[in-house]
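Page 37, continued from 36.
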């Protein structure tokens, strides 16, 4: 049983948002930045100033749902180069991503991201392709909608962790469901619960998940408002990332003179609720099941076919550069649809943290 929150623990659990102490561009951001540079060059050559972005789809077998997140990141990279994204533009982009196997490195998990550029008249300019061989962060679980248990490999090197993740892609470990809690493995220190306030009701109640083909599903309907309860049973603080339909929970964070946080902090042997999209340090927009046309995903995607995945990734974290004794030898990381529901006041603080290796990733499907 989880211990009752003390006043100090409650403050950390509710108010803490983590900004990595050394935060650089992720591998995906770096690749998309390179794509944006190539697109800018092409548009200048063609005398165009804007571009349309279509779907970026994942592998059907994994039912991945990160296309909207990739589109949002690409849109941001283009905006940084003063390129407008316009659905009626003459030049448009579509893309796909999927795991690939290289003959020279069969044990490695590698994801290939390809963007195809065409005109409305059918002329194809060509493909932009990037090889993602991320080895230690939570980008692959988010991209591929994975359940991952890396607890035994927390001190493993990049190559070992990458190879283990590939094994779990090829032979996915079934999630562990205990009453309303979902874990990547029965011995994991981390768990997720989904609480829902049904349309017309006034209270949140825990949803009992179903297990289908080893994956966790929850029943959510139009008009429902939901929140996630993150459980940390370990004696170390946890930094937790949350994506919904491929869109990061901090996607809409805007606050002058503040960098966008990347994680929710959960105090040791404690829990906290993630109630929605974090707009700033004082306000959250609730997770609500609404029409696809009103969803954050719809801002960048043209089809609802890949919606319905929530991915939660857990990392131990600490203050300062030196890891705690429990993690000596472990590395830190390199620097229907869910709409924005009513705003609720929820003050928070952005705190610097050193983020440890990902230990567990839990993906919950909710609309398939």
């Amino acid at each position: 049983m989880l211990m009752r929150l003390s006043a100090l623990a409650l403050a950390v659990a509710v108010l803490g948002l983590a900004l990595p102490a050394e935060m650089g561009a992720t591998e995906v951001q770096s690749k998309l930045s390179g794509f944006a540079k190539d697109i800018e060059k092409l548009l200048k050559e063609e005398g165009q100033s804007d571009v349309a972005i279509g779907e970026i789809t994942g592998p059907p077998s994994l039912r991945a749902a990160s296309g909207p997140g990739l589109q949002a990141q690409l849109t941001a990279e283009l905006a940084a180069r003063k390129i407008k994204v316009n659905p009626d533009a003459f030049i448009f982009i579509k893309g796909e991503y999927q795991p690939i196997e290289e003959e020279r490195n069969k044990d490695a998990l590698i994801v290939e991201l390809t963007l195809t550029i065409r005109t409305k008249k059918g002329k194809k300019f060509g493909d932009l392709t990037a090889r993602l061989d991320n080895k230690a962060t939570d980008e692959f679980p988010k991209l591929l909608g994975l359940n991952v248990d890396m607890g035994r490999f927390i001190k493993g090197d990049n190559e070992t962790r990458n190879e283990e993740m590939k094994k779990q892609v090829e032979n996915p470990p079934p999630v562990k469901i205990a009453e309303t809690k979902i874990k990547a493995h029965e011995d994991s220190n981390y768990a997720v619960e989904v609480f829902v306030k049904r349309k017309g009701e006034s209270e949140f109640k825990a949803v009992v998940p179903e297990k289908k083909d080893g994956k966790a599903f929850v029943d959510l309907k139009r008009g429902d408002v939901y929140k996630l309860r993150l459980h940390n049973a370990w004696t170390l603080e946890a930094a937790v990332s949350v994506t919904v339909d491929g869109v990061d929970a901090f996607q809409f964070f805007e606050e002058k003179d503040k960098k966008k946080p990347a994680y929710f902090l959960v105090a040791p042997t404690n829990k906290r609720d993630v109630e929605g999209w974090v707009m700033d340090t004082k306000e959250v927009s609730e997770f609500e099941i609404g029409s696809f046309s009103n969803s954050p995903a719809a801002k960048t995607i043209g089809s609802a076919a890949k919606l319905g995945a929530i991915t939660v990734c857990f990392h131990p974290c600490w203050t300062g550069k030196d890891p705690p004794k429990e993690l000596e030898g472990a590395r830190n990381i390199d620097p229907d649809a869910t709409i924005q529901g009513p705003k609720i006041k929820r003050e928070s603080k952005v705190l610097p943290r050193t983020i440890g290796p990902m230990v567990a990733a839990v993906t919950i499907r909710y609309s398939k």
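Confidence is low (pLDDT under 50) at residues 1-14, 300-306. Flag for discussion at group meeting. The domain at 27-132 is CATH 3.30.160 (Double Stranded RNA Binding Domain).
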